[in-house]
Amino acid sequence: FTLFGDTGRGHRPSFIGAGPPALAEHLCDVFATALRDVGLEVAVGRFAAHMAVELVNDGPITLALSHADAGWDTDAG
Prior knowledge:
mainly alpha
């Protein structure tokens, strides 16, 4: 899961503007703590761990990013 991705240009997000790993790890910890403080169950893993992820689109929604500029069709693949 990535906290920051700029989708303002092109079809793939850019992560150039993301903060340094130490800041990102701190923000993840703060966010998880805030969720726990309101009574939600939160599980966390090892920050920045390499993961092999397999996805099956069988959920309630799939998000398609689009942009008002020409050439940004939602079905662009």
